[in-house]
Design brief:
MetI-like fold, mainly alpha
């Protein structure tokens, strides 16, 4: 007599389970529809950015590599020559090695000099002094002047006949210098000029300095340390992530120096300021050797990648993060 009741109970339980599964499947279906809708909206919002990146970055990069495999002077159709441009660059073009040396020479000195100067300014402006905002503005102001305008200004200051620097040398009884008009002096002069535009780097250093905990300085004072101990054992270690960032940015910027040579020296004297980017410009737009210029651009790209990887690979030895992980 109880068998039919138990069968009925089992049947009802099965029906309830099936309805629960149906509701769960419906809920999942509704959830997946909402997720798909959100995905479509997200793709729609990022499509312009992705499309712009592909059209303005990826396509030109690929096109430049294809062009580097051709002999093309714009006036006629390009002809495929394989890797001849790269072979010519490495074996038959002394100006390529000259431009590489000039760029390396400039970068080797301008990067540490600019970083040290920016760090020193940030240290000074991190103190509580009267009119601090005014001083920060004055030191940052040169960096917002257009690079062409500042290059013309420095061109006048470097003038060997009536320039400001030689007038100052006359006042203190030192011999006049030719600055950018002398092959041996042009790169040191441009390195000195690079200190003019350290404003953005100074601001980044200043932001990093304000993030250093004050209790660390207090601990040094309790242990009897002086200002040098605070700088060497607290400030510099805590600033190493910021130093790493500015180092990478400075290296990339120095390797791509162009305006100074274009406006001030035209690569001279005697190719003493023939930066590699200016050499690429000369080959592409003055000599119409688009294929060879593209090969030079790829050489610069690979050089920047190699140096960036080297800096990142060695950063774990000297970069200290606040969390304690290097």
């Amino acid at each position: 007599m109880k068998a039919p009741d138990s069968m009925t109970h089992i049947s009802s339980s099965t029906a309830l389970a099936e309805r629960s599964l149906d509701r769960s499947a419906t809920a999942k279906s509704r959830l997946s529809k909402r997720q798909r809708r959100e995905l479509y909206w997200g793709l729609g919002f990022v499509s312009l950015a992705v499309g712009g990146f592909v059209l303005l970055k990826i396509v030109p990069i690929v096109a430049s590599f294809v062009i580097s495999l051709t002999d093309w002077n714009v006036a006629r159709a390009p002809s495929f020559i394989g890797f001849d441009n790269y072979a010519r660059m490495l074996t038959a073009d002394p100006l390529f090695w000259k431009s590489l040396w000039v760029t390396a020479y400039y970068s080797l000195f301008s990067v540490p000099v600019s970083m040290a100067f920016a760090f020193a300014l940030a240290m000074l402006l991190n103190n509580k002094i009267p009119a601090l905002g005014l001083f920060r503005t004055l030191f940052y102001l040169p960096s917002i002047i257009p690079i062409i305008a500042s290059s013309i200004l420095w061109l006048w200051m470097f003038n060997p006949d009536f320039g400001l620097f030689n007038a100052g040398l006359d006042l203190i009884g030192l011999p006049r210098q030719r600055f950018i008009y002398e092959e041996s002096q042009v790169i040191p002069s441009l390195v000195f000029m690079s200190m003019w535009s350290v404003g953005p780097m100074m601001i980044i250093f200043l932001a990093g300095l304000q993030d250093v905990p004050n209790q660390l300085y207090e601990a040094v004072e309790i242990d009897g340390g002086n200002a040098w101990h605070k700088l060497w054992h607290v400030t510099i270690p805590m600033m190493t992530p910021t130093i790493l960032f500015n180092l990478l940015i400075s290296i990339v910027a120095a390797l791509q120096t162009f305006v100074q040579a274009f406006i001030m020296t035209e690569g001279g004297p005697n190719n003493g300021s023939l930066f590699i980017v200016f050499y690429i410009y000369r080959k592409a737009f003055q000599e119409q050797q688009m294929g060879y210029a593209s090969a030079l651009a790829w050489a610069l790209f690979l050089l920047i990648c190699a140096l960036s990887i080297l800096v990142f690979r060695t950063s774990h030895r000297w970069v200290f993060y606040h969390g304690g992980d290097n």
